[in-house]
């Protein structure tokens, strides 16, 4: 064992906080040794990605903690599960999977986790703040918390996230430390394609390039438009963390640790500079689609990561007009759904032919009715994973392209 | 470096395994990239898409992608479709955790070690590798 333990850690290992605390701390110590962390610090909050059912092991792990009387010690949010607990009729998978998936979600609630069931916990009341030391899982949540908020977490995964929540401790290494948050790669956008009015596709393209070319290094992006929204940065991070293992990026002038390029670089020189032309960005976006323009669609899927209220504010007016002729899904959180209900928008959306999916996501579970064809999305992350997960062909486009295509039943892009 | 008893490595998850080598051409996200029921690589962007990892000694420079990879790896090890062992070039928390939990819950062994960069060409060129990972360090032998 190489990690140094303090009194709090030893108390946990000694069972002062119960058998679950002892088990979780034991696993954390072995984890800290494996990643070379020298010590532990307090975590202010945790986000758990373990409520998506991946097989028997998912349930076995959580039921073990439940049986040991486990209880989280810090505010703990939950990522998506395998079923929409509010709209269970949407589930199209097997009954066994539905039962196990739902049990896994409820078992986490029994440990004291908050049933947020969203991959965008940073857009709930549990949003952490600049400088907080946190223990977060789910690759898009991690990159958003680090980059857009300036909270500090490593890429924690299933199991360790819950161990941190149960103990309230997190290993102090990697991105918890200021020096490791320094950008080492500069990504310079020379020009954006002038035909792209929306910053959305540009951010997805940049995110995809970063994922492919930066690995787990920290990039500083120069040249994103000032009109870039929080939700665009969310999309950028999500695809960067899918195509690579990016856990932190800086967007100069947009994110809190990068008021200037020099600040992002912490005064040092970058090891590499990547220059992106408008053609590079166009090529990247083209590469996200597996089918050409004009291909017949079976569905549109939006909201990966979960659609925010601000994104619905952009979608609702676009839907005025002809109804979609294909299935139209939007993934969001139950928290945002409450806001939509309060505004009367949920009814408007349903009347416009939209299926609102909460607690889960169309690319991780059996929700979509028709998978026999191409699906269009504005999410780089969905485009990245859905062909493998669901076996569908995918077309990527802007939010406006997705709505327009849903009306013609074919891929149309401006 | 190569010594009489093999290449020294760092133990991330203890255990012993001897298996045919599978060199990952690019890092793989187990979540979205590995089917735990069959052991097949299903990431269509991956150059080795369609190949089977079951029972192989997986050589992977680094991990990648979704943090749910730990669960998929643990489930594959539980189900007997996972790799026999994993040799990394850089520490990876997601891979480590998956193998650790499979060991903790089921006693299923899939040792994970970190090799030295200087040894990587020799290891990736080998047909079979034996990994012995103990609490005080690991050794990798060719054959």
Written overview of the protein:
The complex is a heterodimer of chains A (414) and B (143). Chain A has 414 residues and is α/β, with parallel strands linked by helices. Chain A is built from 15 helices and 14 strands. In chain A, helix 2 packs across helix 6 (160-167) and helix 5 crosses helix 8. The termini of chain A are far apart. The model of chain A has no long low-confidence stretch (mean pLDDT 95). Chain B has helices at residues 69-79, 93-106, 120-125, and strands spanning 2-3, 6-13, 15-23, 34-35, 40-41, 57-60, 85-88, 112-115, 128-134, 137-142. Chain B is globular. Classes of the chains: A alpha/beta (414), B alpha/beta (143).
List the helices and strands and how they pair.
The complex is a heterodimer of chains A (414) and B (143).
Chain A: H1 7-13, H2 18-35, E1 40-42, E2 46-48, H3 56-67, E3 76-78, H4 95-110, E4 135-136, H5 139-149, H6 160-167, E5 169-171, E6 185-189, H7 199-214, E7 219-222, H8 230-243, E8 250-251, H9 261-264, E9 272-276, H10 278-287, E10 297-307, H11 309-318, E11 327-332, H12 334-343, H13 345-351, E12 354-358, E13 374-377, H14 380-390, E14 393-396, H15 399-408
Parallel strand pairs in A: 2-3, 2-4, 6-7, 6-9, 7-8, 10-11, 10-13, 11-12, 13-14
Antiparallel strand pairs in A: 1-5
Chain B: E1 2-3, E2 6-13, E3 15-23, E4 34-35, E5 40-41, E6 57-60, H1 69-79, E7 85-88, H2 93-106, E8 112-115, H3 120-125, E9 128-134, E10 137-142
Parallel strand pairs in B: 3-6, 6-7, 7-8
Antiparallel strand pairs in B: 1-2, 2-8, 2-10, 3-9, 4-5, 9-10
Helix pairs in contact in B: 1-2
